[in-house]
């Protein structure tokens, strides 16, 4: 008879507690061998199992079992060991947190979504994607939602239905899913955005903003809060430089300087995590959230990489 006290979670905790910690020298040797030596690779993974536990606790009550969260986090840990570059000036634990969180978020997304797309909507979605491919080839660029809709002679209601189906098909939990940690901006709010070139863009925006929100945690508190207030992350409305300055009791110019500095740091973080392309996309997305008051006088006052992109867009 199996024991009535059988607890897989406790057994797991006991197992990882029994893992003998390696010395710094042993860890360094394992890193040198990890690309070719499976045993060294596995040792690095198991030495960091405990890192996953507190992260999993933060994601509890998200519709997925705690042990399943840990298992997904461990997959992220394996990915982190695989991709980590010891030559970069970053601690492995800091680097690994990103991948552990991403795997957990993905698991929650897949676990909680319910895909209910009627058969006629599948047909419409397939036709939409075929038309998208045809127009892309013909125009030598990505067609806009409006161009596809015009070609198919669709009304607003039909377009909305297809884009909702596309969002679910691409892995979005729900059309009411908040983007990142922003509780006031939802997938449905992005569907009417002229800057969304195709249905696939909806899911990419969610993931990009999620990456940005995660990266913000590595900024100093004041810089992180300035970015949050500036771009309306975390359920707040975007604020002007002047309003942020008043709130923090610093000058408007000082807020601008800290904003630029935070962008440079964020860029460095994204380079370390191999997400520089998403960072660039994130700049465009976040720039759309800038308060109207500051759009009128932005000019040279923001990071050069944003200004160059705006000028390039105008020339195009």
UniProtKB/TrEMBL annotation:
Composition bias of kind Basic and acidic residues appears in 294-316
Gene3D superfamilies referenced in this protein's UniProt entry, alphabetically = RNA Polymerase Primary Sigma Factor, Winged helix-like DNA-binding domain superfamily/Winged helix DNA-binding domain
GO MF term set = DNA binding; sigma factor activity
Q: Where is the RNA polymerase sigma-70 domain?
A: 68-81, 240-266
Query: Residues annotated as region Disordered?
Result: 292-316
The keyword Mitochondrion belongs to this UniProt entry's keyword annotation:
no
GO biological-process terms attached to the record: DNA-templated transcription initiation
Domain of life (superkingdom): Bacteria
Keyword match S-adenosyl-L-methionine: no
Key words, A-Z? DNA-binding, Sigma factor, Transcription, Transcription regulation
The record's Pfam families line, in alphabetical order, gives:
Sigma70_r2 (PF04542), Sigma70_r3 (PF04539), Sigma70_r4 (PF04545)
PROSITE patterns given in the database record: SIGMA70_1, SIGMA70_2
This molecule's function is given as: Sigma factors are initiation factors that promote the attachment of RNA polymerase to specific initiation sites and are then released.
Q: Which family does it belong to?
A: Belongs to the sigma-70 factor family.
* Designated name of the protein: RNA polymerase sigma factor
Per the UniProt entry, what species is this protein from, by scientific name? Endomicrobium proavitum
Q: What is the lineage of its organism?
A: Bacteria, Pseudomonadati, Elusimicrobiota, Endomicrobiia, Endomicrobiales
């Amino acid at each position: 008879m199996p024991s009535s006290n059988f607890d897989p979670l406790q057994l797991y905790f006991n197992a990882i507690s029994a893992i003998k910690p390696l010395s710094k020298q042993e860890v360094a040797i394992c890193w040198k061998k990890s690309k070719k030596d499976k045993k060294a690779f596995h040792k690095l993974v198991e030495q960091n199992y405990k890192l996953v536990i507190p992260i999993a606790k933060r994601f509890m009550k998200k519709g997925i079992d705690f042990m399943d969260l840990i298992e997904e986090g461990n997959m992220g840990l394996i990915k982190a060991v695989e991709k980590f570059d010891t030559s970069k000036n970053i601690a492995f634990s800091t680097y690994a947190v990103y991948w552990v969180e991403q795997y957990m978020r993905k698991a929650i997304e897949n676990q909680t979504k319910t895909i209910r797309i009627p058969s006629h909507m599948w047909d419409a979605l397939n036709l939409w994607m075929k038309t998208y491919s045809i127009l892309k080839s013909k125009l030598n660029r990505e067609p806009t939602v409006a161009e596809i809709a015009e070609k198919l002679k669709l009304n607003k209601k039909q377009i909305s239905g297809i884009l909702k189906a596309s969002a679910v098909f691409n892995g979005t939990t729900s059309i009411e899913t908040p983007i990142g940690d922003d509780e006031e901006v939802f997938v449905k709010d992005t569907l009417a955005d002229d800057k969304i070139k195709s249905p696939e863009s909806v899911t990419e925006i969610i993931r990009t903003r999620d990456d940005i929100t995660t990266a913000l945690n590595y900024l100093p508190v004041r810089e992180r809060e300035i970015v949050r207030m500036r771009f309306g992350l975390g359920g707040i409305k975007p604020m002007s430089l002047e309003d942020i300055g008043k709130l923090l009791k610093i000058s408007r110019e000082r807020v601008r300087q800290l904003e630029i500095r935070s962008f440079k740091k964020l860029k460095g973080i994204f380079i370390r995590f191999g997400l520089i392309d998403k960072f660039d996309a994130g700049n465009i997305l976040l720039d759309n959230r800038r308060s109207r008051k500051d759009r009128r006088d932005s000019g040279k006052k923001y990071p050069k990489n944003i200004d160059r992109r705006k000028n390039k867009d105008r020339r195009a």
